[in-house]
Structure formats: structure tokens, C-alpha cells
Specification:
Elements (H helix, E strand, L loop, with lengths): L2 H15 L6 H7 L5 H12 L7 E6 L5 H12 L3 E7 H4 L7 H18 L6 H14 L4 H8 L2 H14 L1 H13 L1 H19 L2 E7 L6 H15 L5 E7 L6 H10 L4 E4 L19 H14 L7 H10 L4 H21 L9 H16 L4 H13 L8 H8 L3 E5 L3 E5 L1 H9 L7
Helix pairs in contact: 1-16, 3-4, 6-9, 6-11, 6-12, 7-8, 7-9, 10-11, 12-13, 14-15, 16-17, 17-20
Length: 430
Amino acid sequence: MSEDLLNSFQEAYSNLELFPLMERNEMERFRVEYGDDLIADLNQLVEDSPNGDGKIVFTGHRGCGKSTLLAEFSRQIQDKYFVVLFSIADKIEMSAVNHINILFAIAVNLMTEAEARRVDIPQSTKEALYRWFATRTRTEESNLQAEASIGFDLLKLISSKLKADASVRDEIKQEFERKLSDLVARINEIAALIQAATKQNVLVIIDDLDKLDLGRVNEIYRDNIKALCQPNFQIIYTIPIAVLRETFISTIIATETNDQVVAMPVLKIFDKGKNRFPNAQPRPEATKILGEVLQKRISSDLITAETAEKIVIYSGGVLRELIRISKECCRICLRMIRRNPSAEVIIDDKILLQAINKIRNDFSIRLGKVDIDILQSVYEQFMPNDPKQAEFLDLLHGLYVLEYRTDETWYDVHPIIIESLKRKGAINVK
């Protein structure tokens, strides 16, 4: 077995695991300059918030790079603001997320960051806050005094209960459904203590809310957006792009956030309709960015230039899909090297075809007739017949349909699925 080749593919495979990029060293190694205009948009909304308590909704397709961009934004602004960035998926079981435990998670994470950065909060005040947290999470009173002296450990314990203990979450929900103002008051108290001690305004960024099921997202934002906007400091919430296609919810969100909605678009590989023509040429701006993402993670010795270009096109401009296809190619190569140690293995068109077939099958097995009819209309018209149809929103949420923005918003079928539609006779591809 060629150990060098095996090690090289293992390194590439490992590099592709790092998505999104959250740590500084990951950013330095793999980040590609992308989305600077969006960072400028976020920066303007945060810096120019008249009362320092604005709420921003950040949306985009799953896997389009929102998490990496938010991490970079928080890094750039951290000298001016007390930034607390966390993933809701790390704090609460995704199936149990609701507006109350989102707010409770904000309180826990504010306090955790204050402890981590040794913010000067009077000990008696901290102990009162710890007792408040402990009571709501049923942390043993007998341990409280000792743990309060090392509050960071106590907060880790409380955080783990919030994530893993359904009964604790239920009790928190029952208690604060009746008196939400008490929870908001406690959050505001913690933020005020931090701001007084650090002389920095608080900015909380909550990532991965866009990964919730659409039904749960609708419930959280449709019925409880006012509650999420009550804390008197700045918060950035993430939201799936499919939710904003519903007029009722998008109107509520626009009203409550004062139209502070920032959308991260998918990179447009082709101008609208150009990919329907033979020998269509992709847009160089998009292919340059995505090609650079690949170059930083896979050595040029392991992939042909032609195949790298095809991976970019198959991604549809979605970073997550670029990573997904590339990772599948690496998996195939690693298996080949172990089966035939003397073989010369490189990611070429044959490897890519295997990877695409695997991903296409994963997509296709969930498609029903209604879905195929919608995909057909999107392919033919760049727009569904009914953009509010629940099945269309599910397809949009699941990346079967990709949304692109120029001076108009239009849609296209994920490039990998086009072959499935062709085989089913739903579309005619020349």
C-alpha cells in the first residue's frame, strides 16, 4: 500500500470534515474571502442600531456558509462588542427547541462567557444568579455553595441539563410560559452587569436555528417572535430561507425586526437559463471562489483540474454540497487504495461519477410524484407554480431546489437531481 497516497487522501478527507469553520486556526488555513458584503451589512445594522437593542434575522440555504461567515463576523467585531456566539444544536436537543429554552440558553451562555472572560461581577450577585439557574434546572442545593465558587463548572452542569434532561426543559417551559417577563428580566440583568463591567454592548448570535424542521421553525417565529425580540440588547437569529417564503411569517419577522433581515445567497454558477445550453460556461467569479475552497482542502496531486471544475458545477453554488461531493470522492479513493495498494488513484471523472450516483440516489429515494411535478415546473420555468406550497418549501429546505438572487429571485433544480428527472421523463435535456 502506498502509505504516502493513503495519508494524503486521509488528510484531504480530514480537511473536508472541517465545515463550517469556527476556530481561528481553521479560518486561517481554509477560509476563502467570500461574503464580505454581507459582513458589511451585518456590521452596519449592529453599529447603527439606534438604541443598541436591534434584532437581526440572518437567512440563507442550509450549507451556504452562514456559520463560517457569522464566526468571521464575530471575530471581526469582538473588540467592540461583548460577542456571545453559540449553536442552538450544541445547547438543546433540536427536536425540543422552543422560544423559552432559546431565551434560557441565552441567559446561560451570557453567564458562561462572563465567567470564561472573568468579567468583574460582584460575588453576591453571581451567587444569586447561580441560585436562580440552579433552582430552574433542579441542581442539588447541597452542591450549590461549593460549585458557585467555581461558577464556570456549575454553568457547565446547568448547560448539560438543559441539553439532555427533557424534564428540566419541560419545567422551564411550564414556569416561564406563565411569566416570560421574569425570564427576560433576568437575561437583561445579566447583560446589564456585563455591559457595566466591560463597557461593551452585548451582541448574541444564535446559529443553527435554520437547521430545525420547518414546522418547529414556524411555531417559534410565527407565534413567539415578539418574545424573542424582548431582550434589550442586540441579537442575531438564523432562520431557514424557506420560512421567509411564507407571507404571513415573513411579514411578522419584518415588522418585529424593523426589516432587519439579511439573506446570504447561493453562489450563482450560471446566469439564469444559461446552463440549459450545450457547452455553457460557468461564471468565473463563482468558480474561482469554490475552486479555491477545494484547493485549500485537497492537494492538486489528488484531483484532476477538469474534475475539480465539474465538482464546482455539481455543487450548484452551495458550499456544503461542494464539500459533500468532494468528501464522497475521497471516501471512494480511500477504499480503492486499501483494496488495491499498488493502484494509482486520483479523483477523476470516473470517481466523480460514482460519488454523484451515490448522492443522487440519496436525493431520489425521497421524491414523490408531487415533488417531481414541482421540480419539473422549477426546471422549466425557474419558478414553482405555487411558491407557498408546503411541498415546495420542503424541497427548498432540503436543497432539492436552490434559490438564486440577482435583480430578481429565481429558482433552479439542484444539478445532481436533473439526471433523475430526465430518467423519469419529467424533463427533456438536450
